[in-house]
Amino acid sequence: MSTPENLLQKRDTHRENLFLSCAGLILPWLTPQELASISLTCKSLKHIAKSITVARSSDAARSFESLPIPFVNTVDSLPYAYFIYTPTQLLPYYRQCSRQFWGPVNPSFNHISRLHFISSSSNSLGEAFGCNCDSKCDGESNEEECPCLALRSSDVITECGPTCRCESECVNRLTQKGVSVKMKIVRDMKKGWGLHADQKIPNGQFVCEYAGELLTTKEARRRQLEYDELASSGRFSSSLLVIREHLPSGKACFRINIDATRIGNAARFINHSCDGGNLSTVLVRSCGAFLPRICFFASEDIQVGEELTFSYGNIRLRSDGLPCYCGSCCCFGTLPSENT
Ligand SMILES: C[S@@+](CC[C@H](N)C(=O)[O-])C[C@H]1O[C@@H](n2cnc3c(N)ncnc32)[C@H](O)[C@@H]1O
Fold this sequence. Notes:
The protein is an alpha/beta fold. It has a single domain, classed as Beta Complex (Beta-clip-like). Helix content is 24%, strand content 19%. It is built from six helices and 13 strands. It has helices at residues 4-26, 32-38, 43-58, 107-120, 147-150, 217-232, and strands at 71-72, 84-85, 156-159, 183-188, 192-197, 206-209, 212-215, 240-246, 252-264, 271-272, 279-286, 293-298, 309-310. Strands 2, 7, 8 and 9 form a four-stranded mixed sheet that branches. Strands 3-11-12-6 form a four-stranded mixed sheet, with no helix packed on it. The protein binds S-adenosylmethionine.
């Protein structure tokens, strides 16, 4: 028989469960600072905040990729780096995006979001630019049959794109399926976080795209000034990459500015090496898309545990440049710096 005490207890348990399930939905949207503040308020919230921290440090890619990318830190107490994840480059209207769910997730939730990101960022030129191949532009399609294969050149890879008729499983969409190698983000005392291979990666293998916000040159210059100031006054690292496409004469004819500082993917953790590192940057243009994407490929055979690095450039304009700790035999002592 239900006594008034029993009824009151039932009501309290129901309220507590409701509170905890709401907290489980809301807390993953919080920044680390907000999470730390809220976890001071009661034991239950502290417990939820802890499980969110564990989930965050177990996958920087928060299920947007088919493989998790964990954080590993044996040098200090920082469990993870906070940023908004995008699996591919974003057009500027995404700049308003200031929060993202990051906690224990149902993987199908982010799978849907991944498709949304990709279709929203296709920067399509229109239907006239795609191929009409039935399903896959595989080895059997010759270049006359598939115009996308015919567009390949030594410095820009052309893949099938948003307006092609072939399916997403087409082999000529190598870099569009996201990260396909096991990687981890490892903390270093001097360089901060760095991206490491967690499997052998053969020379030539696609590693990942450099994803982030696509900026105009004016905005890239404005942000670089802001980042330089922040970097000089404390522990701040920016991830603004500028790639210039050159004419055979050597003159720059096109530039692409991608800022992964606030919104990006695992590539934002790739550190510089003065010897050129073990990754090369390649421009990949999807047929029918206006802008190319920047992709990293292994430039040598990479061993398990090896840090993934590339060269940030050769120009050092600032005499007070940041110290370089790449450890290569040809280290210049300072990180590259040039006018954005
Ligand atoms: C693209 S971020 C790389 C990820 C960064 N380490 C982090 O913790 O977020 C670039 C920044 O990393 C640091 N960095 C990269 N390569 C380095 C190197 N060889 N030596 C020292 N610091 C490096 C610098 O602070 C640089 O501004």
